[in-house]
Amino acid sequence: MIWGTEARSKDAAPLRRNCEGRHCHVGGAVAEEKRFFAGPNNRSKGNTVAKCDRNHEISFSVGRRQFLGYTGAGMLAAVLPGCGNGDIQSTPYQQTIALGQQMIQQAVSDPSNPVAAISIAMVKGDTVVWQQAFGLASVPGQIKATPQTRFNIGSVSKLFPALAATILVDRGLITLDTPIVKYLPTFTMLSPEYAQITTRHLLSHASGLPGTNGRNLFTFEPVAGYAADTQAELANSHLKHLPGELAVYCNDGFTMVEQIVLAMTRQSFADFVQSAILAPLKMTQSSYLTSVPSGGSFSLPYVNGTQHQEFVNAYATGGLSSTPGDMMNLAQMIYGGGVFQGQRIVSAAGIAQMGMDQTKSLTINPSPEWRWGLGWDTVVQPALNAAGVLGWEKDGGTAFYSTEFFVVPNSQFALLVTGNAGYNARAIAETLVLSALKEDGTISSLPAKLGTSAPPVASGPGIASGAGIYGSSDLPYQVLANADGSLQINQWDAATRGWTTIGGYQYRSDGWWWSDTDTASYRFAVVSGKDTEGNAFNYRYLMKRVVPGAGYAYLTLPVGQQLAPLAALDSAWQQRVGTQWTLTNDSPSAVPIVVLGNPPAFFATLAELPGYVLYGNEDLRYQLFVPVSDTLGGMSIKVPGNFGRDLYEIRFASPTATSLTIGSSIYARI
């Protein structure tokens, strides 16, 4: 989950997105980092109240596009935690385990935002030194979670298509850098450059595919055919950037690996992963929920007084249901160079490829912390890098769950924490991994935590060119340059259909604009050059810097791209302004239909940028589209990372049509 994807806090979680990823994501009551990854994750502003049988209440937000790249917000009923069930081996990590128990117990017991259940495992070498579950797997049944309780791990699932692809390479069936049309001759898109997409592009978020097929992504009943539906949708879509030009969290890239596996092995992706990966790894508590399970212990979402089971129908990009203990077997295989308990699962070269920095050849990459691997969110985990340690990280978020997976290959150490969304999974994971490395002597001390206080005011550069409207996959931003050299940053608000102020920012001695009341800082980045087709480009990004997770490293991410004025809308598009539209072809069991109640989407414009059309709702979020013709609204931005992640095109059958399509979703005019 991604990849995929402003930093979203965990109290906002659009369901179609994220993944997380992003979802996503990008993590704690979450911070910007989950937005960074995938999706993992959380977006929507619309609040719903969930009640449990103890009459506790929390507010949660849901929206369709939150997915798999970053963790999501607290959507579960507030519950009093059950007792932890633990399995702690003789270990040098007693201090770390005690710290982890304290942090997790605090999360499940937090009266302001309790989490129904959290489960964790930690492995050193070939020994699982800690497994423990906290809270309730079933709220109405008051059934305690155990280490055998399964959770949906979201975009952490992306490691499995990466492994599947490397196994196909080992078998001589594919190569990572061959265009996928060789293996999928039926794959096509409207942009001719689709023929350049390789498997490496799919696995490193660099394919240029629009983002995430939102139709029937999360449901309360299994829905088959998601991957085929995604391929059919892409046949009617354009690329959002050239393959390999930039990396932006993209769930559909991993879904297309499902189709490659099917084409090359004649096995479904779920069956292939079961036989080639899960079975030899003895991951007996892990599977894709392709049907209603007949047994096993599952964490079950409890929403609006009803208990459900969540099905993630995008199997490769975020659909694995697993336990932390099972995932420790995967970790042992990874740092074992492809070998688990004496059996080779994948080549050492394949594991090494997954752990290589895939960003070095990108044309556009203004964020130094983005070090995508194949399947991994980062192969230079920032907090561990601050301690001088190589770490690989993948996070994941679904509509109802948040997960973090850390592998420290040179130390043969790994940790996975998963649970109902609403807790800061990344902060827990970073804190405990660093604590363990200090406790076992890998590092002599923890890295210094970064301050979030603004440095002194300094004389800054001219900023008039930075003023304007910035588009993203979430909602527009407005930057105003004041005469005194300060900035005002606004974001578009759906409730008022106008601008709301984020804050005022002054230039500081570290080269960033800061507010005295905001721990985030901003600046601009301009990326210029020529693309692989020889076309010149010049993009200005609004950059945001935060200190996510446990607070040991900065995360810098572009949150919007400056948009140039266009000619005024023609009459066909003007007539759509103010109209409302409703989704018609999702399954009745789709999570956003059940939870959000299928909110209408609407067309609007911005007075400051009248040549674009704004379309969306709390589910889709709010994107600025470029009118390409009277029947096509095109994508308007190229934003790396997570804020350009799930883009769409709007298609009408005719200028006067009363229905439209976005991806494979059909909306009817109200």
What is the overall pLDDT average?
Answer: 88
Residues in helices, as a percent range: 10-25%
Oligomer: single chain
Distance between the termini: 34 Å
InterPro entries: AmpC-like, Beta-lactam-related, Beta-lactam/transpept-like
Protein name: Beta-lactamase
Pfam families: Beta-lactamase
Organism: Paraburkholderia phytofirmans (strain DSM 17436 / LMG 22146 / PsJN) (Burkholderia phytofirmans)
Please tag this protein with its features.
alpha+beta, AmpC-like, single chain, 670 residues, eight-stranded antiparallel β-barrel, Beta-lactam-related, Beta-lactamase, 27% strand, globular, 34 strands, disordered N terminus
